[in-house]
Write a structure and sequence with these properties.
30 helices, Rossmann fold, binds adenosine-5'-triphosphate, 6-stranded mixed beta sheet, rod-shaped
C-alpha cells in the first residue's frame, strides 16, 4: 500500500471510530511529537455530518426568528393567487356573457356553390368521424379520384348516418351535455337527387374546436373550422363524380352545432399565469442570496472556515435548508392554488406541474449560489435581487413571446430562448396554463407520450441548466482555486517548501526568494534556529505571505520570513503596529490563507497538508466579533460545539462549562444583539474555547473593553493558558505584560525582536526613568544635585513642577541613589521622587521607530 492509500484508510477508520464521540485530540503527551510532521498519522477531520447538522440547526433558528420575512413569504404567494382570482372574477362579471341553449340552430341561408368555391386540391383525406343525416351510405362505395389520379375510397372517412335531421341534432346536442364522443362535423341533406343533380345540404360544424377532443365543456364561438374543407371536399368529390346528371345544382349552407347552456368566458387568468407564477416562484431568490451574502459580508464564512468549517458541508447545508424553505412555500402555493380552484391545478395532472416546480427549486438555488458570488454587501444583493427578479421574469417572458409567437417557429428557437432558465420556467407554466384554460382538458399523465411531447423538453432543459449552473458555481467557488493552489504547490515546493525540518539550515534561507533583506537580529535568528529543532505546539517556519496586487497596486508582503515557536502552557504575545502582519499570521495558522512560502505546524500538523487535523485541535478568536445577532449566547456556543462533534449531554455540559468560564452563565439565554461589547468579546472567546483546543489563537481579544471587563477576560485567558499554547495579538502593552511570558514584535511583516518580557525591557530600555517634584524655587537645585548623583541623566521634560529624566543603566547603584535622595529630600524641598524601569510601551515604540528608520 502506498503512503497515500494508507493515509486514506487510516483517515476513514478514525472517522468511523469518531462517530460516537466528539473529536478529541490525542496529543497531550509530555513529548508530543516523535516523528517529523509529514509522516505522522493524520488526525481525524471535523466530520461533515456534524457540521451539516450544526449549520442546519443554526439556519433553522435564525429563520424562525425572522418573523416578518416569514410572514411576508407566505403572504406573497397568497396575495398573488388572490390577485389572479380577483381578476378572473371581474372578467367573469363584466366581460363574459351567458349563452342560451339552442339544440337546433338555424342554418344560414342556402347558397349555390360552384366547383371553384369548394374544390380543395390539397385537402387531406379525412380520417375524422363525420355524421350524415341521410341514406348516404351508398355514396361511400363510389371511388374518388384525387388530383394525382390515384383512387381513394370514401370508406376511409368514418361516418355515422341518421334517419332524420332532428335525430342528428339531438345526438350532437347530447354529445356536449354528456361526456360522449364529439364529432368534428356533420352533413345534413335536405335534398339529394342523383338523377336530376339537385343537391341541397347544410354543413354542421363545431365552431369551438378543430378537433373532437377539444370541447368538453361547452361551445365557443371563436374556434377555427379547418376540418370543413376535408368534409366538404370529400362530399363534393363524390357528388361530382357520381351523380349522373350533367348539370349539378348544389346549394349549401353552414350551420353551427347545437349550443348548450353555459357562459362564454374569456380565460384571461390562463394568459397571465406564466408571468405571475414565475414571479412567485422567483420570489425566494433574493432571500437565498441575502442569507449567503450576509455571512460573507460579516466575514462569518471566513471565521467559520478558520474554525474548521468544511466548505462542502456549508454549501450542502445551505442547499438543503433553502430547498426546504422552497418546499414550504410550494405547499402554501398548492394549498391556496387548489383552494381557490385554479384550473391550472385542477385540470393538469399533479405530476405535470409538481415535476416542473421540483426541478425549478433546484434551478433557483443554483442561480442564488452563482449570483451570490457577485455581491459583497447584503444591501446590493437585496436591491439587485428584488428588482432583478421582476426584470428577469418580465424580460424572459416578453423575449419568449416575441421570439416564439409566430406560427411555425422552429424548435431550435424555442430551445434557444429557454437557455435563460426563467424563460424555460415561463414556457413550462404557459404550456400547462394553455392546456388547462377554458375549453381545454389539461395535460394528462395517463397519456404519457402526449405529456412528454408537451412538457418533456422543459423538464429536460431545466434539469440540464441546473446541473450546469451548479457546475459553474463549483468551478468559480472551489475548483479553480484548488487547481491553482495545486499547480502552485507543485511548481514551488522544490525550492520554497521544506517538508522535513532537518533539511533546513542557514544556507537554505539564502536560497529562498524571500531571504531577509537585511541582517536579522540575533534573537530573531536564534529563535529561527531553535524552532526548527523544537517540539513546540506552534512552529512558524520561515513563513512568508504575499497578497497578490493588481494593476494599480503592487504585491503586498504581509509577513516576511517569520519563524517562531510557542510551547504548551505558554502565552506568546505577538505585538506590532497596525498592518504589521499579525492577523495575517493568525489567518495562515488557521487555514484561511495558504502560506506563500514556508510553513506552519500545529501540534506537528502542517497547514499545507493537514489543515483538517489542525482544525480539530486549534481554535481562533477573531479580531472582530463575528456572531449572529439573532442567536443567543448559548446557541452560538452550541453551534461551534456541534461543529466539533458534541452531542446530547456532553454538548449541554460543555456549553454550561464554557459559559461559566467566560462569566456569562446568567446571560446565556440573551440574544447576541442584547449583549454589551464586553459580553460579545467574552462569548467570542467562549466560542474559541468550546472545543477545548490544544492551541488557542486570540486576535486582539480585549479590544474595546472597559478595564473591568478586560481584567475578567484576562483571568479567563490566564486560566486557559495552563494546558494550551496560546498566541495572543494585542496593542495593549499592559495586556502583554499581564498575560505573556514571551513577546515578539513584528513590523512590516518582519520580526524585529523576540524574548521574555523582562529581558526585552532590559535589552531595549535605556535603563531607568527618574522623576521628582519640588517647589519652583528649588527645581534648579534639585536638577543639579541629581545630575551629580547620576552622570548619564538626560532630561526628557519638565511640567508643572515635575521633572522627568532617562538614565542609562551603566554606573547606577540603586541603593546609593535611594539613600542620597532620602537624606537630602528635606533640604532640597523635594515633595516626591521616583525611579522606575523602562516600560514595555517604550520598548515597543523604540523598536517600531528603529524599524521605520531602517526601512
Ligand atoms: N486580503 C488581503 N489582501 C491584500 N492585502 C492584505 C489582505 N489582508 C491584509 N493585507 C495587508 O497585509 C498587511 C498586514 O495586515 P494584517 O491585517 O495582518 O495586519 P495587523 O498586524 O493584524 O494589523 P492590525 O493591528 O491593524 O489588525 C496590511 O498592509 C494589510 O493591508
Amino acid at each position: 500500500m502506498d503512503k497515500e492509500d494508507s493515509t486514506t484508510s487510516e483517515l476513514e477508520v478514525s472517522e468511523r471510530e469518531a462517530n460516537t464521540k466528539p473529536v478529541e485530540p490525542q496529543l497531550d503527551n509530555e513529548v508530543e511529537f516523535q516523528k517529523p510532521p509529514h509522516v505522522q498519522k493524520k488526525q481525524t477531520r471535523l466530520k461533515f455530518g456534524d457540521q451539516f447538522y450544526a449549520l442546519l440547526r443554526k439556519n433553522w433558528r435564525l429563520q424562525k426568528r425572522q418573523k416578518k420575512l416569514n410572514t411576508c413569504q407566505i403572504c406573497f404567494s397568497v396575495v398573488i393567487l388572490l390577485w389572479l382570482l380577483v381578476i378572473q372574477f371581474l372578467v367573469s362579471k363584466y366581460l363574459n356573457h351567458k349563452r342560451d341553449p339552442d339544440p337546433t340552430p338555424e342554418p344560414e341561408p342556402y347558397d349555390y356553390l360552384s366547383p371553384a368555391d369548394i374544390w380543395y386540391s390539397d385537402c387531406p383525406a379525412g380520417s375524422s368521424e363525420y355524421y350524415f343525416s341521410t341514406d348516404f351510405e351508398k355514396l361511400a362505395n363510389y371511388t374518388v379520384t384525387t388530383e394525382e389520379g390515384t383512387d381513394q375510397n370514401l370508406a376511409t372517412t368514418q361516418y355515422q348516418e341518421f334517419s332524420s335531421a332532428d335525430s342528428l341534432d339531438q345526438t350532437l346536442y347530447d354529445s356536449f351535455t354528456q361526456d360522449s364522443f364529439k364529432p368534428a362535423g356533420a352533413i345534413h341533406f335536405d335534398l339529394l337527387n342523383v338523377t336530376t343533380g339537385d343537391v341541397k345540404f347544410s354543413i354542421l360544424y363545431n365552431s369551438s374546436s378543430t378537433s373532437t377532443s377539444g370541447s368538453n365543456d361547452h361551445l365557443q364561438l371563436d374556434g377555427e373550422t379547418a376540418f370543413l374543407p376535408t368534409l366538404l371536399n370529400t362530399v363534393m368529390r363524390v357528388l361530382y363524380q357520381n351523380i349522373s346528371s350533367t348539370s349539378l345544382n348544389i346549394r349549401a349552407a353552414f350551420q353551427k352545432f347545437p349550443i348548450i347552456e353555459g357562459e362564454d368566458q374569456l380565460d384571461i387568468v390562463a394568459y397571465m399565469l406564466g408571468t405571475f407564477f414565475s414571479i412567485l416562484l422567483h420570489f425566494l431568490l433574493p432571500i437565498f442570496m441575502m442569507s449567503i451574502v450576509y455571512e460573507k459580508q460579516n466575514n462569518i464564512l471566513n471565521i467559520m472556515k478558520m474554525m474548521g468549517l468544511r466548505l462542502r458541508a456549508y454549501w450542502v447545508s445551505i442547499y438543503v435548508f433553502n430547498y426546504l424553505l422552497y418546499l414550504l412555500m410550494l405547499v402554501v402555493f398548492y394549498i391556496f392554488g387548489f383552494a381557490f380552484g385554479f384550473r391550472f391545478f385542477r385540470k393538469n395532472a399533479f405530476l405535470s406541474h409538481f415535476l416542473l416546480f421540483i426541478i425549478w427549486g433546484n434551478t433557483l438555488i443554483a442561480i442564488s449560489f452563482l449570483f451570490s458570488l457577485l455581491f459583497k454587501k447584503v444591501r446590493t444583493a437585496s436591491i439587485f435581487g428584488y428588482f432583478g427578479v421582476i426584470l428577469l421574469v418580465i424580460a424572459s417572458s416578453v423575449l419568449f413571446e416575441q421570439l416564439t409567437s409566430q406560427d411555425g417557429t422552429p424548435d431550435s428557437t424555442v430551445i434557444l430562448v429557454q437557455l435563460i432558465p426563467s424563460a424555460a420556467l415561463y414556457h413550462g407554466i404557459n404550456i400547462l396554463a394553455m392546456e388547462s384554460r377554458l375549453g381545454h382538458s389539461g395535460v394528462s399523465m395517463s397519456d404519457l407520450k402526449l405529456a412528454v411531447d408537451k412538457m418533456g423538453s422543459v423538464y429536460l432543459i431545466l434539469f440540464i441548466e441546473t446541473l450546469v449552473l451548479f457546475l459553474f458555481f463549483a468551478i468559480f467557488q472551489t475548483s479553480l482555486k484548488t487547481v491553482f493552489c495545486f499547480w502552485r504547490r507543485k511548481s514551488k515546493s522544490k525550492t520554497l517548501y521544506f517538508e522535513n525540518d532537518d533539511e533546513l539550515d542557514s544556507e537554505d534561507l539564502d536560497d529562498r526568494k524571500n531571504k531577509p533583506t537585511k541582517e536579522e537580529p540575533d534573537d530573531v535568528h536564534r529563535e529561527r534556529l531553535r524552532v526548527r529543532k523544537s517540539q513546540d505546539r506552534i512552529r512558524v517556519l520561515g513563513l512568508t505571505k504575499i497578497f497578490k496586487g493588481n494593476k494599480h497596486q503592487p504585491d503586498k508582503v504581509a509577513v516576511n520570513n517569520l519563524s517562531l515557536g510557542i510551547s504548551k502552557g505558554e502565552c506568546f504575545g505577538f505585538l506590532g503596529p497596525n498592518g504589521a502582519g499579525k492577523t495575517t499570521t493568525v489567518s495562515v495558522m488557521s487555514g484561511l490563507y495558504a502560506p506563500t512560502y514556508g510553513n506552519i505546524t500545529v501540534c506537528g500538523y502542517s497547514v499545507r497538508e493537514d489543515l483538517g487535523s489542525i482544525h480539530t485541535i486549534s481554535s481562533v478568536c477573531p479580531q472582530h466579533d463575528i456572531l449572529w445577532d439573532d442567536l443567543t449566547g448559548t446557541e452560538s456556543l452550541q453551534f461551534y460545539a456541534r461543529m466539533h462533534g458534541y452531542k446530547g449531554a456532553a454538548l449541554k455540559e460543555r456549553v454550561e462549562t464554557t459559559l461559566k468560564q467566560v462569566g456569562l452563565e446568567r446571560d446565556g439565554h440573551k440574544k447576541i444583539k442584547e449583549y454589551s461589547g464586553g459580553m460579545k468579546r467574552r462569548i467570542s472567546v467562549g466560542c474559541a474555547l468550546i472545543c477545548n483546543p490544544k492551541v488557542l489563537l486570540l486576535d486582539e481579544p480585549t479590544t474595546g473593553l472597559d478595564p473591568s471587563s478586560k481584567r475578567q477576560l484576562w483571568d479567563v485567558i490566564r486560566e486557559t493558558t495552563k494546558d494550551r499554547a496560546v498566541l495572543l495579538t494585542t496593542h495593549s502593552m499592559e495586556e502583554a505584560e499581564a498575560l505573556c511570558s514571551r513577546l515578539g514584535i513584528i513590523v512590516n511583516g518582519q520580526l524585529q525582536t523576540i524574548g521574555e518580557t523582562q529581558e526585552l525591557k532590559i535589552r531595549f530600555g535605556k535603563g531607568f526613568k527618574f522623576s521628582f517634584h519640588s517647589t519652583e524655587e528649588s527645581e534648579a537645585k534639585v536638577d543639579k544635585f541629581v545630575r551629580q548623583l547620576m552622570p548619564n541623566l538626560q532630561l526628557l521634560n519638565s511640567l508643572a513642577g515635575t521633572w522627568n529624566y532617562e538614565v542609562s543603566k551603566e554606573g547606577i547603584v540603586l541603593s546609593k541613589i535611594f539613600e542620597e535622595l532620602e537624606n537630602h529630600k528635606k533640604e532640597l524641598e523635594i515633595d516626591d521622587w521616583g525611579i522606575s524601569q523602562t516600560t514595555l510601551e517604550e520598548v515597543f515604540l523604540r523598536i517600531t521607530q528603529n524599524a521605520a528608520m531602517t526601512n
